[in-house]
């Protein structure tokens, strides 16, 4: 069956047509027999070893306003969190069209005086809640809690921020096309209110409600799009930004092309080369990685490879290995283990000898079924992820802007993006933006 490449950590497109596997008629088992998880695995961080800084009850910043405190989940309580939400417009363009709660957790600093800044963390998606990743966030930034607060905000529709649930899509109860179309019909026009621009407005509302003057923003993977959306709209309170393997680094404000995607293909040669040179066996077998890598690209460009192969779980997969597949399925490995990068040159050497099986096997390892049981929607909301990606596919994450000067220096006057309605097309798949290596100039 013809498949298209899928990468749920990045932009979901509304306009890709393909035939997808049929889903089971009843709720499937949450684990044992599916290909691989329906979204890429994230390495599990060790349990954070945190200082016992709270000698009494944790308190909100003294500058907090209009915050609704709620009972924290058990794990968050064990880490000394403060939990709450604020109420924001469901549609920021029409504030009277309903509201949505935005859930957050705060881990306050323990040194005397106010926090120097608030560290906002988003590990990406779209679709996962941020607060369930509290362990990873505390592992990364627990050492900074002497003078900084850590703030985790569930994007709208995810976590406990008005969780979106479309049963067919969430639990794999219908074929993909039908599940997405039914979800779009269920959400109606509101599906267009879950874009990264809306999320940026929510984050700013949380910052303002909690009264923080300075924000350090950590955006990982698709969280890079969230970071880009925030910093291009609300730069006044930004102290720093950390982009961790991001999607969505802006080339310039107002451009729809991100720096990451513009130069990503140029960096792949260095990635493959360094990976090989760090290996004793690969460096001996492949003394000139750039030359071999270029040869593999040229071969795939001229003659894409197609065939059947088995993945590591013993599941048969039909693979089309063209430039798109090579870039998005093998080199930029979506399952999160990146093991295929180290085997790429050997697979290329085998292909040069007329044996395509090693390359097809690498391609087979990186496919999974999009029709699956996604489990608890407060941990991962398939509806929110699809809506977020579909809006971003039709509306630039970075708003149009015109530059003008004030006394304080250059600033951006950000205009509002026009609303885009999510309609239920005949087929709405998930796909990575297609990129190809540029041909070298002679």
Distance between the termini: 39 Å
CATH architecture grouping of the largest domain: 3-Layer(aba) Sandwich
Beta fraction of the residues?
15-25%
Shape: globular
Q: Please name the CATH topology of the largest domain.
A: Rossmann fold
Cα radius of gyration in angstroms = 23 Å
- Helices and strands, in order, run as EHEEEHEHHHEHEHHHEEHHHHEE
**Strand order across the largest sheet:** 1-2-3-5-4-6-7
What's the tally of helices? 13
Number of strand segments: 11
Highest CATH level, the class of the largest domain:
Alpha Beta
Helical proportion, percent range: 25-40%
Total domain count: 2
Short description:
With 442 residues, the chain is of the alpha/beta class. It has 13 helices and eleven strands. The chain has a seven-stranded mixed beta sheet, sandwiched between helices. Strands 8-9 form a two-stranded antiparallel sheet. The protein has a two-stranded antiparallel ribbon with strand order 10-11.
Keywords, separated by commas or semicolons:
442 residues, Rossmann fold, 7-stranded mixed sheet, two-stranded antiparallel ribbon, 11 strands, globular
